[in-house]
Amino acid sequence: MNDDTGRRFPAHDASSGSTVSEAAAGAILTIDLGAIRENYRRLKARLNGVRCAGVLKADGYGLGAAQVALALAKEGCDIFFVALLGEGIALRKAIGPGPDIFVLNGLPPGSEPEALAAGLFPVINSAVQLKAWRETARSAGRSLPAAIQVDSGMARLGMAPAEVEAVAREAGAFDGIGTRFVMSHLARADEPQQAANETQRREFERLRLLLPAAPASLANSSGIFLGSAYHYDLARPGAALYGVNPTPYEANPMLPVIRLQAKVAQTRAIGAGTGIGYGHTHQANGPLRLATISLGYGDGWHRRAASAAWFGGVRLPFIGRVSMDSIILDISALPAGRLSEGDLVELIGPSQSVDDAAGHAGTIGYEILTSLGARFHRRYLGG
Ligand SMILES: *Cc1c(COP(=O)(O)O)cnc(C)c1O
């Protein structure tokens, strides 16, 4: 890549997973591909022989779709789901031919030839998309695979019940479509006591019988834990692979996958009455020792996310506001001189899980993961 002065810049290299060296970075994100593989095996064990795909939307929940796909492929996973066609095209380039890649959000009108050329399969969410893919198959002169999604009660993506009934009555509606799966998605799978789950499952049963006979798929991560009635022929976990708790009502059955550490940029001692950070939202009551770390909301660390970092098992509370590129920590609990410039403190890891950080921010682990910044040095373990 060149800028307008003609200097050369290295292109982003997906295989190394990082554009910034460990020495240069303000923070280091470690992604344990071995833990992702173990999580896949744990889900497989629960599924008792039912096939298990890998959901890699939003760049593998922020952790690197290509790296995750290659790790899952080693466990025998050969079906992947992305959200967008662009994600699918990038993933196909990175992992080559072989595994099936389905595009969950469907294909934008006019993009069918691009999907075909990249060897990607749509999740068909409407009668309009069904017709477009049927015509693509006719021009290609062969049958083309697709998944058909029905809306069993979430009102987000998939053919509405009336639409399913209409295409079911239409002669030739599925000509040239190789229906690989009929699928639907659960709105409340992480709340096992909710009747909505069973209502959706029954509606899914009813609708899929109207469509061409094909394997069925309903369960996301949490859906796998609703029991075998929800497993059908293919499960589609995302979050659980990445260590987010699929059973928030009980202990996390998955292994943690990431560790996020930020570098100390500077330390200082301050006296009573000193105002700290933007807006002086905090004033020191007495002498304090502070460390400023090189990570902030510009790295996707929400201003309301977890309010402490950790060092050697000691909690170091945030003090003052989270800035774009930095956060101030109260390190008075550590012996003087214990922490110096360049040392790493933990934001996510053994002392504070992704779900802990999410809880503080009033959000979910999914959002913490997909917000993780582009400025981190990324280190992959167990590839
Ligand atoms: C995101 C998504 C999944 C995976 O959900 P998790 O809760 O991350 O396991 C499965 N199916 C569909 C349709 C999705 O959009």
Q: Would you give the CATH topology of the largest domain?
A: TIM Barrel
Q: Which sequence of strands runs across the widest sheet?
A: 3-4-5-6-7-8-9
Which CATH class of the largest domain?
Alpha Beta
The overall pLDDT average reads 94
- What order do the SSEs take from the amino end to the carboxyl end, as H and E? EHEEHHEHEHEHEHEHEHEEEEEEEEEHHE
Morphology: elongated
Q: Flag low-confidence runs.
A: 1-16
Bound molecule types: pyridoxal-5'-phosphate
Radius of gyration: 24 Å
Largest sheet: 7 strands, parallel
Strand content: 15-25%
> What would CATH call the homologous superfamily of the largest domain?
Alanine racemase
State the distance separating the first and last CA atoms. 28 Å
**Helix proportion range:** 25-40%
The helix-and-strand class reads alpha/beta
Pfam families: Ala_racemase_C (PF00842), Ala_racemase_N (PF01168)
Pathway: Amino-acid biosynthesis; D-alanine biosynthesis; D-alanine from L-alanine: step 1/1
Cofactor: pyridoxal 5'-phosphate
EC number: 5.1.1.1
Detail the topology: elements first, then pairings.
Layout: E1 27-32, H1 33-47, E2 51-52, E3 54-55, H2 57-61, H3 65-73, E4 79-82, H4 85-95, E5 100-103, H5 112-117, E6 121-124, H6 127-140, E7 144-149, H7 161-169, E8 177-183, H8 195-208, E9 216-217, H9 221-224, E10 234-235, E11 258-270, E12 275-276, E13 282-283, E14 288-293, E15 308-311, E16 314-317, E17 327-330, E18 344-348, H10 354-361, H11 365-371, E19 377-381
Parallel strand pairs: 1-19, 2-10, 3-4, 4-5, 5-6, 6-7, 7-8, 8-9
Antiparallel strand pairs: 1-11, 11-14, 11-18, 12-13, 14-17, 15-16
Helix pairs in contact: 1-3, 3-4, 10-11
Bound molecules: pyridoxal-5'-phosphate (PLP).
Pyridoxal-5'-phosphate (PLP) is lined by residues 55, 57, 104, 185, 220-222, 236-240.
Organism: Mesorhizobium plurifarium
Enzyme class: isomerase
GO biological process, one term: D-alanine biosynthetic process
